Amino acid sequence: MSGKTYQWHKIAESEAELDFGPNELAVANLDGKSICVGRHKGALFAFAHKCPHAGGLLAEGFIDALGNVVCPLHRYKFNMANGRNVSGEGYYLKHWPVELRESGVYVGVEDKGLFSFFSRNPH
After folding, report:
1. In a domain, 122, yes or no
2. Cut 0.85: pTM above it
3. What gap in Å lies between CA 46 and CA 24, rounded to an integer?
């Protein structure tokens, strides 16, 4: 068990509400910030909107056959599940867990606050 605590934020009423393009990538809003959501083999992944290398918009890239998101600018590749740069440049892509629930699509943001255990949402 990871021991991490997450605050879950609803990003869509359903998976169908996310506007996936033919590249299986969509942009969503997480607490007022744009994030990217990728869909590969039926699974959803949430990660940073921009590439950590040069700021390329990842939603304009594509997902390769192995399930990595590929930046449209320089073709840097990132594992959508763990953020690891798999093309060897050493960058890290911020990513978040996704849960598909009856009430919508949720993204978990790690609760890192010193006193966060006082304000945990029991729902």
Report:
1. no
2. yes
3. 12
